[in-house]
Structures are given as C-alpha cells and as structure tokens.
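Thread: Modeling a multi-component assembly for a lab meeting

Hi all, long-time lurker, first post. My supervisor asked me to bring a structural picture of a complex we are working on to next week's group meeting, and I have zero experience with this. I have the sequence lines for every component (976 residues in total). Could someone generate the structure of the whole assembly? Inputs are pasted exactly as I received them:
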Amino acid sequence: MTPFYTSSDPLVWLLTMMVIVPFFMGFLFLLSPQGFSRRYADALGLLVVLFCLCGAVILWLNFRPIMAGYAFLSTMPLGLQAIGARLQLGLNAISMPMFTLTALIGCAAGFYAYGQAPEHKGFYWAFLLLILAGLLGAFASVDIFYAFLFHETALLPIFLALMMFGGENRREVLTESGIFMLAGSLPTLVGITNYALQAGPLSFSLIDIRCHLANHAISPSLQMEVWAPLFWGCAILSGLWPFHGWVSRLLTQVPVPVSMLVGGSLKFFGVYFLLQAFLGSSFWGVDSLQTVTGVLCAISIVWVGILAFRQSNFRAMVALAAVMHMGGLFLALSSYTAEALSGTVILMLASGLTTALLLMLSGAVGRRLGHLEMPQMGGIRQSAPVLSTFLMFGVLSLMALPCFLNFWGELGVIVGAFRGVPLWAPFLLAGLFITAAFGLRALSSMLMGKKVEMSDLTQMEIFSSWILVLPLVLLGVLPFIISTPISLAMKTIIPAQL
Amino acid sequence: MRFSSLFPDWVFILPELFLAALGVLTLLLCLGRYKGLPITRHIVLYSQVAILGGSILLLQNTTTSGQHLIYGGLFSASVGMGFWGVALQAIGLIIAWMSKRENDKLPLEFYGILNSGTVSLMLLSRTSSFFSLFICLEASTLFITLMLAMGARDSHKVALKYLLQSALSAGLLVWGIALLYAATGSFSYGSVTPRVFSEYPILAFGGSGLVMAALAFKMGLFPFCFYLPEIYEGASWSAIGFLSTGSKLAAAISLLGLLVGPFLPIASVYQPILVLITILTLVWGALSALHQTNLKRLLALSGVVHVGFITAAIFIYTLTLSPYALQAVGFYFMVYVAAMLLILYCIIEINPPDASLSSLRDSYGRQPAVAVFLVLGFASLAGLPPLGGFLAKFFVFYNCLLLQVWGLISVLILASLLAICYYLRVIFGLFGRYGSAGFLPITVVPQPPLSTRVFTGFLVAVIIFLGIAQGPLSLLIK
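Re: Modeling a multi-component assembly
Sure thing. I ran the full set together rather than chain by chain. Output:
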C-alpha cells in the first residue's frame, strides 16, 4: 500500500498545511457564512493569510532541491492512483517563486479585504481563502492533473464572488469568462490526459514523466497531439491575443481582493503550466508552432498595449497592461533559452506583484472617489500622498525601471528572446515603450493638476501595499537573492544544451 | 444459539426487514388515534435514522467475500449489494426529512409508503431471479405511484399517468420474462446460459431485449424518457427526489447486473444498441433541457442526460469489465444523487411560489446560504471542479478515452457544454438584481432549522469531499 506521506520533514508538513488550512477554513466559512461575527471572521481570515505568508517565507529560506529539482516532496494518494494521479506536492525553481508570489498577494488581498462587505463577511472570506488555496495547490502540485484540478478549484469561488460582489456588468462578464475558461480548460485537460497517456508510464507526476522522457523519444505527431491542445488551452486561460478581452473585463468586474489574486497570480497559470510541463523534455522541438506563437505574441504586445493606452479608466488600463505581459512571457517561452526561461520566472513574479499592487490601489481610489476615470481625477497627490507614492511605485515598476524587479525580468526575457527568436524580439522593446507611454500618462492624469479631495490609505491598506512593494524593491536592488537560487535550481531541470 | 445460524439468509436483509416493519407499523399507526400527533412522525423519522445506523454497522461487520444467493436464488448477498442498500436507505431517509420540510401537514401514510418503496428498491438492487425482479419492480412502481398521488393539487392525474406508463413497462417485462422462461424453464439468472441463446435464439434474444427495455424505461433512457417531464412537473419536490435518485439507482444496478451477468454472452449484440441509446439519450436530454423555463421539467430532462452519462460508463464496463469503469458508474451515481438531493432540499427551503425558473429570482437576497448551496449543487451537476461532478464526468471521459470511442466522447463533450449552459441559467436567476454594482443586498435572513442545516451541510460536504478525495468511496464501490 502506498504510504500516505513519503516524508516526515516538518517543512513538508508545512507545505501541505499551507494548502489544506486555507481550503479547510474556506469551506468552514462557506458552510457557516453567518456563524462568525464580523470581527471573528476578519481575525480568522487574517490569521490564515498570515500563516500562508510566513509559511512561504520559511519555505523560501529553506529551499534546497533534493529530488529531480524538487524540495519538500510529499505524496498523498486520494483515490485516483488507478489513472496515475496522486496528490504530490513539492516545489522547484519555477514553482517556489510562484508559490511565494501567491502567498504574498493572498496576504495583501486579505489585509485589503479587512473591513469590506460587512454583511457578507463569511462568504467574502470563504471565496478569498478558497481561491488562495486553489492557487497555492496549483503551484505546489507536482502532479499535473492535480495542478489543473487546483486551478479549476479557484475558478468556482471567483464566479461566486463575481455574482455576489461584482461590478455592474457582472452578468455579461460572468457569461463571457465562463465560456472562455471552459474553452481554455477543456483543451488543457485533453492535453494533460494525452501527455500522461503518451509521454509517461501512466502517471501525471512531472518527475515520472521527465524520467520517462529522458530515455524515450516521442514522435513529432504525438508531440503535436499533446502540445497543440495544451498550448491553445493555456493561451486562452492566460488571455493571449485574440483571447485577451475576457481577462481584462473580468479583472475590472470582480471585487478588488479577488482581482488581485486573479491578475497577480491566476493569470500566469497557463505560462507556468507550459513551462513546467515541457521543461526538460524534447517537446520544444515542435518548431512548427513557433511562427504562430510569434505572431500571436507580437500582436498581443502591440495591440493590447494600444488598447491600454486608449483607456481612460485606470483599472481597465491596469488590467490590459497585465494581459499585455502575456505576449512577452509566451514569446520568452517559445525562445526556449536559459536566460529567457529564468527571466520568465522573474517577470511573472514581478508582474504579479505590480499588477496586484495597482489593482489594489485602483480599488482604494475607486472606493474614495466613486469612479476611476483618470481625466477627472487631477491632483490626488495633495490629498492622498501615501496612496500617490505607492501609485508611483506601481507604475514605475510596470515600466520596468531599474531598481524594480521587473527590470531584471524584462532584461532576461529580452536577452533570451534575441538569442532564441530574434525576429520577434523587437516587439518586446516596443512593448516597453508603449507601457512607458500609458504609465506616464496615467501618473500625469492622476497625480498632477487641481487638487481633488479624498482621504488617504488606511493602516490596513498601507500594510497591504508594503507587502507588495517591499519584495519588488528589495529584489530589484538585490536581484541575486532571487536570480541565484533560480539559476542554480534551473540547472537541474533545464537541458544541458541550453 | 446465534440468530445468524438459525436464519442464515435473513441476516443479509435485516435492514430491509426492519425498514419494512417500520413501514407497516407506520401504516398501522395511521389507523389509530396517534396519527395526527407530531411526536409520531418524529418517532418514525428517528427510527429510520436508527435503522440506517444499524445497516452501516452491519455492513462494516459483514465479512462475506464474493457473492452468493439467498432465498432459493431470489436475491444475491454481498458486501457490494449491502453498500448500495445503505445508499438507497440514506436516500429514503433524506427524502423523508425533506418531505417533512416541504409539507408539515403531509399525512403519516406518506412515510409508511416511502419506507416500503425504499425496501422494494433495496431488494430490486439485489435481485438474481427474473421473478424477484418483476415483484420488486412492480412493488416500487406501486409505492411511487402512491407517493406521486400524495403531492399537491391534481397530483392524482400525475400518479395515474405514471401508473399507465409503468403498465407499459410491466407489460414489456412480463413478456420478456415469459419468453426467457419458455427458453430456459427457470426464472433464475443463472439459467440463462450461452447455450440458451444458440438453441432458442428468438425466445432468448427477444426476452432479453424486452427485459432490458423495461429497465431502460425505469431509468428513463431514450425513447422511454418522453413521459418524465410531465410526471416531474406535477409531482412534489420530495417525490421528484425519490423518482430521480432511488428509482434510477436501483434500476441501473439491476440493469448492470443483467448486462454483465446472464446477458453477457450477447454483449456484442446489445453493445451497439446500448451506445446508440446512450447517444440519443444525451442529445435529446441536453437539447430539450436547453430551452426549459420550468425548473421541474429542467430537472427531469437534465436527469435524462445524467442517466446518459451513467449508461456510457455501463457501456464501457460491458466492453472491458474493468473495475475502473465500474468505479465510474458507481461514482457518477453517488455524486449525482448527492447533488440532486442537495438541490431539491435547497429548493424546498427557498420555497418558491411555483416551479418556474423566474420564481427562484433573487433567492440569494432571502436565503444567502441556501442559495450558495444550491449553486454548489448545480455546479456539481454541471461538472465544474472542484466538486464531485467534475471527477464523475472525468472518469467517464477517461474510460472512453482509453477505448478511443471518439463518437461517444464527442457527444459527451457536447452534452457537458450544453449542461453548463442550462445550469448557469438557473444560477444566474438566484442572484437576480443585475445592473447594480457592489454587494447584493440581503432583505431577510431566516435561520433554517437544524435538520436542514445538517442534511444540506452533509450533502455539500459529500460533493466537495468526493471532488477532492475519492479513495474511500472508490474502495466501497469496488
């Protein structure tokens, strides 16, 4: 009989608990939405997100890959062993930053959620914690079936949160995002099942699949059967052009804490999943799709960038800027060079933090002014200096200026892209110019001009902002903290020829 | 001397015996002056809980391995059968509490009839003889007819319709059994051997086909599903619960037992027909459900689609006899039953003025927790993760994918997509008041009674748990 746990290491337990605790608490809130007073609900919710953040930091500090590039490995057979799926949790060089990113954003979203929706506190926390648990599980799963399952787990609470707490166009957005998520999830599931059936010894575990692929080549036609549905599924889920509209509209309609988790973490799942699934395998020999990927990414960068530039609504602009990053990330993936892949991980981390920060600030501004139209804002810097400072941090980080983590991510991606796909790499530079244009315009519209009366950020909102800004600046000034472990750990995964 | 050594066969159907005794006792109580007392109803309900507890204990202590026949070959006894018996008993129990919530003035007779109906279904799932199959099937029909007649106004018309339709099914069954008896000279399943099909092909093939058709009728497979929307529309929510879960489950177990038992030698003949019926069931059910505005009709038609999924898994099982395919059948049924009961319980709690979809509008504002539970129930039926419904559908897909039956896979995918469309329509309605940004307002927040909280909480936990950890249930199904 398969043991329930394959390790007794307390850090392994910590990783498992970081997935289980928010899940359990989320269900508890869901099953008893009126069973907690507002104060207890807030206290419990904050306790859980803080636990996740502290846990993520402890795991990061103790991250030492031991087996196939993974650390903190544990296995829990939950009943799907017959089809080759086991709940196998563990972190490697790619999942560790994403896992930490999710915990950071989850904590920031939790602090922002404090004091929101007083009548619906139970549901509010239930959805937030279930989304957080789903995302943490998705990034910590070594088994790709469970990674997919966890990702999908996060979707249902997003829909419920949208229905209950969403903006005025929630019905249209719900229908649209439901269709696109389904359209993305189905091919992804087909791709995953094909991958396990054809590429591995009937196992969804990435470790088993990589071991098997190291000794067994797969024919190009079979590669296409796996790669094509997975690519299209992940492209739809990530919002790559022409599937960009639904992601940006969803980000503008869901409640702010949910949009932070969606825009800052969930959106990257497609790129992350492709990176994890095909790293170390020979699947990237499928060159026939490189041109298609290049075209989609180039249009994604330029066209979505122009759309962002045309936006007068701040939150819509941030949402489109977040989607625009997908073009760069997919381009970096298709270049398949060591620099680009390391840069992709760093850029996902940086872009996630920046997007979450800007979405949170958009929520704060919207709650105070009642609108997010940039031309009507004028000088909020006089009445809300703290908010304005964080806003500047966010926008400058979005523009990938030095001293911010985005800079190192963009640098890695651009250098790698010039090596791997030189034809399409200039579009990345064009993207930077477009981002700078709409970023500076947004700062000018919102901060400069006639004074607008509004209150500044609350203590909780300031704390929430610091959670996101601190790693952006710290890792931007001292990039080796993240780049060294990622590069070292990547060497155990990335094929030697890269 | 031990009871089990005195009456060795009786031990295996102790739960059925106790439940039947409770049913008879309840009907006897209806004759006396205790009929109208609320305490009588509570005693009956808690007795059901006690019998279910005893059945679970008995199941845990049953050590019989394999399958053997009892009562002269009328029924079969095994741990697996005991598990399905407990499942049917649990369905009966939840429906009893549900019906109490639906109509507090429901006559006490209803509980007696419900318990007797549950016993007939429990025995139906154990049959190993055509004779007992006929008796149990007809007994269940009789009790369901009575339950339908005890519904709202004009329910007697619905009951009559059901009785007439069932008479057709009974006719098919009797005819089929007669043909098989003519071929074999026995009612036992074991007497239908491959030799019979070669020596008396017309009698054996004809008889098998008619028996299968009768069970297909009970399950609501195409073309025997046209009557279902009419019946559901006129029935009470509790009766719908019994009809859509217990009745279908017992019929499916019987059909499965026949297909992989006495009719296995003619598998190559019935498999193409089975797959055709499955496809037609899925397509007709999904397309018909798409434009429904009546909730009861929608549940009837979407139930037809779910039966189509289960039949697809049964088809795969008859092809491969693989335990995973059997697991898919059992898992799908358990998840479907849990979600369906949850939905019906929540609808009863919301207490809509009529069965139109618009009557559920803005239920969230009145009963937030119940509305969210209802969403979870519908989401599970739609097959959305992380709920049990997703994995139930995935198991069916996976088994089909292994056999590469692409035609069936395409229809299954189409039916799943359409299912999401019509279930989403219901979900939208629950959260009414579109067009206003911000948090939905809550007007009244009544606290549901403890029994509702316990049962709906349990059912939600089941569909969520089955979406995450399938191990324990899979083990039981195996």
